[in-house]
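Person: At home tonight, work slowly through the protein below, taking as long as you need, and write a paragraph about the fold.
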Amino acid sequence: MDKKLSLSYTTIALHWLCALAMLAMLGVGLYMVRFEAWSFYPWHKSAGVILLALMLARAAWRIRQGWLPALGAASRIEQGLAKAVHWMLIIGTLAMPLTGMLFSGASGHGFGIFGIPVVHEQHDPVHPGQVIPYRAAWADAAQLMHAWLGYYLIAVITLHIAGALKHHVLARDGTLRRMFGAHIQ
């Protein structure tokens, strides 16, 4: 159970697992698109499916635990901004794998978990090696949303890191140390 001066192991583990996983997925996603590294797609899609479960667990845990209380003095505006950024992170980290799955599934490419299909590819019988989209309009919309969500998450993560550094460097209130497992006095 989270307390004002210390966080549970579950909270800390979910935070850092989700943070590192999302940063890795964003990095790999940007690399794949920039360098047309198609060989990474099966891994990226598999990890995305698995990470959705982790992101759902983190969202459920945070909603169950409630929002963490501020350690230092914070204005109503700062508290509102912090809550907004946290909601934006939760929603973005859930929407990112969902739009990726919708894009891949609706486009006919399918997706799965390391070779175990969740949505099968829809092969074109006339043109071997090509696929037929299940829903091309959905695939196009999801692809666009997935791309924009990547940039959205980069911006929101940057805000989150800036807020953490503000607490650590300027306010010196122990917020960042608490997220690393320290018990604040």
About this structure: The first strand starts at residue 111 and ends at 113.
